[in-house]
């Protein structure tokens, strides 16, 4: 029993500074979370005092923020000399745990998670708080779809700046903004970058700067600000890129991030900044207390987000150059002549009209998963079967071919080597090598898929398919809808996402 009121029931989390328990508030008859910070075995009295001050500081900051997407702070108590924070209990799992189990998530799901997390952070920014440690482990996902931000333990408000961290850098290196890794002070803009890094990890299957176990090497990579473009984000890619702009003054506000993320699945990229650039200012303290509110406070002086679907601003058109017109006409003539020659060659080809010809406008039927006894990789058209070669081996992917590749990938369960070879180099890297790939799939006894339908054209030569996958284990079967990206690599159609 803590403070004669809170009865501990079960441990639900732990970290470097303490443990989190599910507990019963005997006075009010409700379930709460008790975060007990362990300081009894600290190396010195000063360290113990620092931890107690941090607990009180965390409680004050969290109590200032009242929002539906932030874990609420109820009370501060003490047990055997250890400070205990009494907080809202949310039956949930962290985004980190979900990613460890499922791998990369569909962009639409990530956008919904991000919109709720951004709403809480926008409210925090409105009351003068920067979180400073946004990461998958601090985003909680409830079964009913609710998302909540937790652990404001290293957050900072300007009027409480006397408490510092012992490491000199606050936050988890893999998700830090570049300017923080370079030693600058945290701002609202650095929170925006960290949220973008967290969502990037969720949709790509790995943090933007990798997972180097050497913290100094990782900080060096973060400081460079060189984020690989997202490959699996689909319509969310533009928004993630905007959130993780290297220059903090060009990033959108957190409130603009809410608007963009909430627009999923038709997520549009955030507009590039226009006009003079103003460097971000450190978070200012409030001159007067702010009354708690359940609604999302508006970020002060936040730019107005354009309404989706509104007409874009007119772009100045330069007068046409007569010489340029002549060049375009000549180029068009060459293209027409080339098309005529190509048509003649195809019509006279001995392979035309054969069994493999696809009729225009036909709706091909996707292949069924191979039978369990099949061990050979899925068949493909041999180059010797016809004298007609593809005009552009790296050209657009036909939706039926892409769908068949997805069905084959999940259907060729008995031949892991064939399935591994269906992955692009990017997808293989996300699995971490063929040994890790085989180890992951070894926990299943069967696999099949159906209803592979094109979800969207990603605009970069790749397609994303939605497919229903049935997983068989020793204790039964589960059916889930997955999104799989398909592209070309070395002229071959390959799976280009963490398809599992």
TrEMBL record:
Disordered as annotated region, ranges: 266-319, 348-401
Residue span(s) of domain Protein kinase: 6-267
Biased composition (Pro residues): 268-282
Feature: compositional bias, Polar residues: 359-368
Gene Ontology MF, one: ATP binding
EC numbers: 2.7.11.1
Binding site for ATP: 35
InterPro entries: Kinase-like_dom_sf, Prot_kinase_dom, Protein_kinase_ATP_BS, Ser/Thr_kinase_AS
Keyword check for tRNA processing: no
Alphabetical keyword list: ATP-binding, Kinase, Nucleotide-binding, Serine/threonine-protein kinase, Transferase
Low complexity: bias regions: 283-312, 369-387
Enzyme class: transferase
Protein name, as recorded: non-specific serine/threonine protein kinase
The organism of origin for this protein: Actinophytocola xanthii
Source lineage: Bacteria, Bacillati, Actinomycetota, Actinomycetes, Pseudonocardiales
């Amino acid at each position: 029993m803590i403070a004669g009121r809170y009865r501990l029931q079960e441990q639900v989390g732990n970290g470097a500074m303490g443990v989190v328990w599910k507990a019963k508030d005997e006075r009010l008859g409700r379930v709460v979370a008790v975060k007990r910070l362990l300081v009894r075995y600290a190396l010195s009295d000063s360290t113990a005092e620092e931890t107690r001050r941090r607990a009180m500081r965390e409680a004050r900051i969290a109590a200032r923020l009242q929002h539906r997407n932030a874990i609420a702070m109820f009370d501060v108590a003490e047990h055997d000399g250890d400070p205990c924070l009494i907080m809202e209990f949310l039956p949930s799992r962290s985004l980190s745990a979900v990613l460890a189990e499922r791998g990369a998530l569909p962009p639409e799901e990530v956008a919904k998670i991000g919109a709720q997390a951004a709403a809480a952070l926008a409210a925090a920014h409105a009351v003068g708080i920067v979180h400073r440690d946004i990461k998958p482990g601090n985003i909680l996902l409830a079964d009913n779809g609710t998302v909540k931000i937790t652990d404001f333990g290293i957050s900072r408000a300007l009027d409480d700046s006397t408490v510092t961290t012992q490491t000199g850098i606050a936050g988890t290196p893999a998700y830090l903004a570049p300017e923080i890794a370079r030693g600058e002070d945290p701002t609202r803009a650095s929170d925006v970058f960290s949220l973008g890094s967290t969502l990037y990890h969720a949709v790509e299957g790995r943090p933007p700067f990798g997972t180097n176990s050497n913290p100094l090497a990782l900080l060096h990579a973060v400081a460079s600000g060189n984020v690989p473009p997202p490959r699996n984000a689909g319509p969310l890619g533009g928004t993630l890129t905007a959130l993780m702009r290297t220059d903090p003054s060009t990033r959108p506000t957190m409130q603009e991030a809410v608007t963009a993320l909430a627009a999923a699945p038709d997520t549009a990229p955030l507009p590039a900044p226009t006009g003079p650039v103003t460097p971000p200012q450190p978070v200012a303290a409030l001159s007067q207390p702010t009354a708690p509110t359940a609604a999302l406070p508006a970020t002060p002086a936040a730019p107005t987000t354009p309404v989706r679907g509104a007409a874009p601003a007119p772009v100045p058109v330069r007068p046409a150059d007569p010489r340029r017109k002549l060049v375009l006409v000549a180029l068009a003539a060459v293209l027409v002549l080339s098309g005529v020659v190509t048509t003649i060659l195809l019509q006279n080809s001995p392979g035309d009209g054969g069994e493999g010809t696809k009729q225009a406008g036909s709706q091909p039927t996707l292949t069924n998963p191979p039978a369990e006894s099949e061990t050979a990789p899925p068949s493909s058209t041999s180059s010797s079967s016809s004298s007609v070669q593809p005009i552009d081996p790296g050209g657009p992917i036909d939706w039926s071919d892409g769908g068949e590749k997805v069905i084959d990938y999940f259907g060729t369960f008995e031949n892991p080597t064939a399935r591994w070879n269906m992955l692009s180099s990017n997808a293989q890297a996300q699995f971490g090598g063929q040994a890790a790939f085989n180890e992951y799939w070894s926990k299943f006894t069967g696999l099949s898929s159906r209803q592979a339908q094109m979800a969207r054209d990603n605009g970069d030569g790749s397609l994303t398919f939605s497919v229903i996958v049935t997983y068989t284990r020793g204790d039964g079967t589960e059916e889930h809808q997955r999104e799989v990206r398909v592209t070309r690599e070395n002229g071959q159609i390959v799976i280009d996402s963490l398809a599992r």
